[in-house]
Amino acid sequence: MTNYHRMYRLGFTPWERYRAAAAESISDLLDREERSRTRPWGRALDLGCGRGQYTPELARRGWQAVGVDYVPDAIAAAQRQAPEGVTYVVGDVTDLSASNLGTFDFFLDVGCFQGFDAAQRLAEGRGVSALANPGATLLMLEFGPTRMRRLVGGVSQAEVQDAFPGWELVDVTPAETAGLGWPMNRTAPQWFRLRKV
């Protein structure tokens, strides 16, 4: 598993860089998600929320937003700038049942799944499935497999689907790469949207 504690200490947080590089395309994806729903949107869980890059945006849009991350320092930073209505929890996305979070209608994963090994990815899938309300959706960004696997552990569509049995793959959308820098811009990132069936 990726050592996120160390990555925060070293200031190597490509998922935060991605937020800055792809804010408009992420907003478009969230717009599309909401067009498929009726208000109120319900509850959203930001998986591996880090220092709160996306959770406040979900709340601003009208979701009851919760962010979960297992790095306490990241959660503390997120809490210091949390807008009203946003909840942050220290928790392990490979063991979501331990955090007593309740159920959700929407899950956002911007690369959290990416940092896990095969067993941990399956555990995340089980945990998300257990917390998913009927018809819940998951929007997940993953970087594709490359020859540079030691630098970026890529994720294939098959690996995503294997980790989420009982979910339907609704669509796959190429992700923005402008501004990512090397080697992330060589990974053919994609957004996967799944629905619980």
Characterize the structure shown:
With 197 residues, this protein is of the alpha/beta class. The chain is 32% helix and 24% strand. Strands 3-2-1-4-5-7-6 form a 7-stranded mixed sheet, sandwiched between helices. 40% of the residues are buried. The mean pLDDT is 88.
Straight-line distance between termini: 29 Å
Oligomer: single chain
Strand content: 15-25%
Flag low-confidence runs.
none
Number of strands: 7
Strand order of the largest sheet: 3-2-1-4-5-7-6
The helix count comes to 7
Any descriptors?
single chain; 197 residues; seven-stranded mixed β-sheet; 7 strands; globular
In short:
The protein has 197 residues and is of the alpha/beta class. It has helices at 4-10, 14-21, 23-35, 55-60, 72-80, 118-131, 157-163, and strands at 43-47, 64-69, 87-90, 104-110, 132-142, 167-174, 190-196.
Please give the structural blueprint.
Layout: H1 4-10, H2 14-21, H3 23-35, E1 43-47, H4 55-60, E2 64-69, H5 72-80, E3 87-90, E4 104-110, H6 118-131, E5 132-142, H7 157-163, E6 167-174, E7 190-196
Parallel strand pairs: 1-2, 1-4, 2-3, 4-5
Antiparallel strand pairs: 5-7, 6-7
Helix pairs in contact: 6-7
